[in-house]
Structures are given as C-alpha cells and as structure tokens.
Model the fold of this input.
Amino acid sequence: MNREVTIEKIENLQNILSQIKELVCEARELLEGTDEASYAKATWMAHIISALDNKHQFAYESSNMQNTINDLRESINCERSIVPTSNDLFIGEW
Done:
C-alpha cells in the first residue's frame, strides 16, 4: 500500500522529530545528578538522538528520521517537476 505523501504529513513528521528531541532533553535534565545519567546518555539516549538526525556528538552517521523526511520532500519535489506545464505540452505532429 502506497499512501500519498503530502507536505502536511512531512511537516507533521518534522514536528514529531522536534518533539522527540525536546523530550530526550527533558529526560536528560531529569536524570542529571543521578548515578544512572551517564549510562542513559551512553546507551538509550545515544540511540534515540542518533536515530533522529546527524546533528549530534556521536562519531557515526546512519540512516535516520531526518533523512527519511528529506527523501519524502525530494520525492514531492520530483513529482512536481515531472508534471508538465502548458509550456511543456507538445502540440503538433507526433
């Protein structure tokens, strides 16, 4: 099943990405000063943050949510560029 990609869906995904980042920052603040803070930052927080985008302090880059959002944006732009305008239509002999 191929659902239609819309700008609204892409914007919603971008908002979700931002919300996840904010929540991870909030979790980090809640853990600050605890014995578990270092472990959490090195494990599950690192996994979450690195899965969102490449704007992090970790040494590796991987496929992430931002790449998916960018690919969806690009697919919409490609579809728009394929749609012929009135200037592109061939009028005359085949």
